[in-house]
Amino acid sequence: MAAACAAAARMFAYNATLCACDPGYYLSPNGTCVSLPTAGGGGGAFSDWQVGSVGAGSRNQTLYFLAPVLSLDAVRRLTQSQAVLLFTALLALLSWLAFCASARLVGRDPAAASNTRRGLFRARFWISRLDCVFHTQHWAADQQVLKKRKTELGGTCSVAALILFLGLVTVLLYQAINKRNIEVHRVKPANAPDLLSFVNDIEFHITTVSAMSCAQLAPPSTIAMGTPGFMDFRVLPLSTLLTYTCQNTSQGPSITLKCDGCRMPPRDHYVSWQFLDLPGRPASAVGFQFNLTTKQTGDDQHMSFVSGTINSDNYRDEKPKTFRGPDSNVLKIRLFPQMYNKLHDLKLLQPLLQDFTQGTTFSDVGSLNASLHNPTDGVINTTLYISYLSDYIVEISNQSALGPLSIVASIGGLYAFSVAIFLCLMSQCEARITKLRDEDTRMLKTLSKQRAQRNWDKVRKFVMYTWGPSNLDPSDRSGKWPEGSMMDSLHESFHKKRKPTRRPSSDASRTRRASDDMGALDIERVGELQRSSSSRQP
Fold first, then answer.
1. 234-237 and 243-249 as β-strands: parallel, antiparallel, unpaired?
2. Both 200 and 133 in a single domain?
3. Using one digit for the tens of pLDDT, what is the confidence trace for 438-447?
4. Is the same domain home to 358 and 429?
5. Domain with 103 in it
6. 3-class DSSP state for residue 95?
7. Are residues 146 and 136 in contact, defined by beta-carbon separation less than 8 angstroms?
8. How many domains does the chain have?
9. How far apart are CA 369 and CA 392, in angstroms?
10. How confident is the prediction for the chain on average, in pLDDT?
């Protein structure tokens, strides 16, 4: 057996037949020596510490059912940080500025062959139309009337100022929503009727981290009240105030002390219990885990708690230690009354583990081995010292930190701040780059020329389709389309000669037309005779 103990890690032999773990280690159910789970985690004597109020504090407990799917602590740390909102606003601002810069560098030619370049030029125009903040603040030379000018730089700065303003307003509103109320603690002296109104259900869970079991426990039977040595000191049966249970866990025996409907007495309480040696199972431990909770009787939604792990209170060295011996380990717990005015005068006793006094400990194998051979050291004494801070009551209430007028004033300040930044930027750019002063005029002229060219092309096509090619078309000077072509057929369809329309005539008109024709013939004959007679004369 001694050889087997020597071969195992963190284990030594005692009584020549039994094995024990080194100081600071205990025998786990699988037969190996393990240390306290939170020992060496940087917490010193007190590790894995938590103090708070479930439902009565600022943390929202209504979404805890999502914990198996989504880490709520990670989401809370992410969403409660104002830096995330500021980073999002800054990212949107930089993206907008990068887009405007790329549009100006690439989209310079409205008649480019690439659709991307033409689209970026149109984007530049619409960016200039977005100039809604600085349209009267652009460069104006001397002796000129100031007019509204919408430029690409003004549109860029206008939208950038609005992005920055909306980002800052989002952060402001988020802060106003989360911190619209501040928690105010007010301390007032406690009277007897005030203390008697605190009726709470109290539970103390204390686990002795070890390889022991409840079979080694000498259970508590009495509870002491008052100050030892004074007239108010009393010893009463445990059942008059507390109920006791013990449960075996993988980390050792867990003691539970409960008090349902307890009123807050002005005196202190002491409860003690012991663990004893059994054959082959020595009484030793490496630490204590505790969970202390209180809640108002009849209210299961709100609860105060404190939980953590204790391994030793020796801060001078970090040697692993094992608790064993006659000296008692004292856990000093304080309960102080808190009244939550914001929760309909909820009254809770806030538990705190204020102090831990260690008993007998061993930090080397030799001294622990000697203690295991000493029957007088075969015990672990534990005392729970409950102290009531009954002199004062802490009243907790909420007060509004931000009013509507302060929020409006803050929004106005953020708007002025955002506009001033980009106004300075725009002024510096226009003062140093001369062509930026009249870029709106140049862009409008470019768009007007492009529009006029498109309209002129439409007129030319209409003229050519209607009257055929003319000298306006430099590609064809002949003035005719090729015979049999589509344009020739279109030209013929537009220029077909209209046939004369015959109208019905009466007999009188026919007679008059015939007489007119005969008169005309007679006149022609007379003319011919005259010409012939004149030619015959000498």
1. unpaired
2. no
3. 677 777 777 7
4. no
5. 82-180+408-437
6. helix
7. yes
8. 3
9. 49
10. 76
